[in-house]
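input
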Amino acid sequence: MEYEAVIGLEVHVQIRTKSKLFSRCPYRFGEVPNALTDQVTLGLPGTLPVINREAVLKTIRAGLIFGCDIAHVAKWDRKNYFYPDCPKNYQISQNSDPICRNGHVEIELQGPSRNVMGEHRKIALDRIHLEEDVGKLMHFENDSGLDFNRAGVPLMEIVSRPDMHSSDEAFAYLSSLRMHMICAEISNCDMERGEMRCDANVSVRPVGEKNLGTKVEIKNLNSISGVKNGIEFEIKRQVELLKSGGKISQETRRWDAAAGVTIALRSKETAFDYRYFTDPDLMPIKISQEMKDAIGAEIPELPFAKQERFFAQYTLPYTITSVICQKPALGDFFERTVAIHNNPRAVANIIANDMLREMSLSAGDGNISEERPQERLDFRVSAEHLAELVKLTDSGVISKQIAQSIFTEMFQTGKSAAEIVEEKGLRQSDDADELLEICKRAIDGNSRAANEFRDGKGAALNALKGFVMRETHGKANTSTVDKILRELLTNVT
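output
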């Protein structure tokens, strides 16, 4: 019997606001434990919550981005449970009347090759609601500690329907969700800082079966790749268990990334009774059509729409648009540069290859990870300086090979391309007599490549060009070299 997986994700996204959800207490990552708390956060007697308007507006913005139905009236509920990281012994959340219902997240699956766009499909959402975060419980060798700095921070919970069937779809869903949150300036989604957290609900069923199988929840998924790997393992585990005659238990499991396995934490045969009831201290939120229209007008161009526009307007390949359209700052930098010097392909290539490489190296780990927030991208090279570099290449002042080394120095020193060219004497050589002699030596020393070119193998000319470029330290004008070599090889009797 063949089985298929059914996957739903619950994603918590920390909203970018200056203060917490129900008080003016600020929040900053990395502060001394319990330095950012107040009476409301700790639930002291006599305190009353006051809603953070910005958090509500950004939740509505997320709902509009994903095509959700925005409630006319949304209310607050108390979710009651007793755990050390919940200082009030209840969490203010939304149960029966959330801000957003339905909607979908557009995803892009990996194509058959790197330069081919994959399939686009839509993953259905159940709801998006707003709630306050809890504190952080830390366990040490002999005791445990509580940090309430994070308690009360506005948290958006995005709940998908069980609409995914593979770990690849879950990976694409989280990537798209994060990309849109950053683009719309709703959240940094820095998973290393806990600004985006995910729980996965996974079940399997026989292919063709309509009813869902027994659900298993996976926690401790701390990266997008961790979600993918955890789901892959859990699908395999459940299928093997069913094929061997076993039974799936409804339970919560944690992902052990080091061991590459999920481990049982606790049974979930019965749902926990949170005893929800309407919060008596908070008035419902009324959301007018005028408010939705105003928020919708401020939504920036979204990544997939920008990618389509870049295809049409700049005729860029998918390998480029899939990189520079995912990060708003990259796309904006690209368009500022092209507005100064109109060579979209050359500008995009430098950004997608040279610039991102240098950013990765400067980050210290050799990689711009999926968890690093958009704000940490450090361009160092201005749009004006990059446009100048491309212009010098297009006009034949420097070669493309020299341009690559110049960009590296620009990134490291902040100097302009023109300064570096003049300081190091990197202008291309057009001295026909000098290049003629070097081209003759290239042919004499590479008779095999010369004969292959004469026999019709055009690519063999690259070996001869390479010799000339090495001899001139990359300063030879490539067009002139190409012309001289072809003339020499064609005229030889």
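quick obs: The first helix runs from residue 39 to 42.
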